[in-house]
Amino acid sequence: MTDFKHIDSTAYAADEPLDSFLLRRSHENIKAVREHRGRLGAWHPGTLNTSTSAVVKPQVSGYTQRSLIPFLWHLAPNVTEIKVAVRHRVTTSHAVSGYEVQLSAFAVEVSHFLNGDPLPDGQTSDLSGGASTSTTTTLTLDVSDLSRGWIVVCVGFLSGESAAVEITKTSGVHGPEVYNGYTTMFHVCDHNADLGTTPTVINHWGLVVKTEAGSTKFSDSVESRQMLRYEYDSSGSLSTDLTYRLYVYPQFPPNREFVNAAVTDNQSLYYIELGVADLEGVTIYDSNVNHPPVRAALDASRPAGATALVSRVSEQHQVFLENTRFHHLGPTQNPTETDFSTFRPVNVISGSRILTTSYTDICSCVVGRGDLLEAGGTNYRRMVYTLRALIYATYPTQAPGPPVPFNITLQLQLTNPDLSNPTNQEVPVSRWPCTRAPNMRYWPFATNMSNYGNNYAHEYDSLAYLLGFGPQHSMTGFQRHTLRGVLPEGDMGRRNIFDVEIQIEDDQPLVTRRIATLQAKRGENTADGAVIGIPGQAPRLHVLTWSVITTPNTEEVPASELGS
Amino acid sequence: MATDIVFTIEGLGAGTTARQLYFARGTAPSWDTDNAWVESCWSQMPGEVESSISFLDGSSTIGGLSLEVFSATKAQQGQTIASMLYNQTRVSIATLEQDETETDTAIQLNSSATTLANTHVSLAREVIKLGVHAGSGLYTGCTRGAWGTTATPHSASDFNQVFEAIKGPVLRYRKVTLYRVDLDSATSYSDLEQLGVFVIYTVTAPTPEVIRIECDSITSIFERGTILNDLWRAPVEEVTTQIVVNGDDLTELKISARKAKLRSTAANATVAIDGEVVLKPGFETGNLNYFAQGINDTDIVRTLDAAPRLQTIPDDPKEAWEVFICEGDDTDVDALPLSANLLTLFLQLLSTSSHGTNGDYDLGIEDLGLAIPTDLIDVAGIELVRDNLGTILEQELLVLALDGEPLEVFSFFKEALLPYGVVICNRGGKVGVAELADNDPDAPTLLETTDILGPASTPPRPAPGQSRRMDLSMDAISVSFMMVPGFDPVVDTLVDGERRRLTIYGADTPRALSLKFIKSRDRVLATLLPYLQRFHDDIPQITLTVLRTREADLQLGDLISLTHTKIYSALNGVKGVTGELCLVTSRVLSLAENTLTVSLLDVGAIYTNTAIFAPSAVVESGASGTSIPIAEDYADGGFQSGLNPNYPKDASSFIVGDNLQHCDENGTFIQNVKIIAIATSPSVITVKATPSPLPVAGDILRLQPYDGNLSDTRDRFAFVADTNGTLGSSSDAGKEYSR
Question: What pTM did the predictor assign?
Answer without folding.
Answer: 0.81
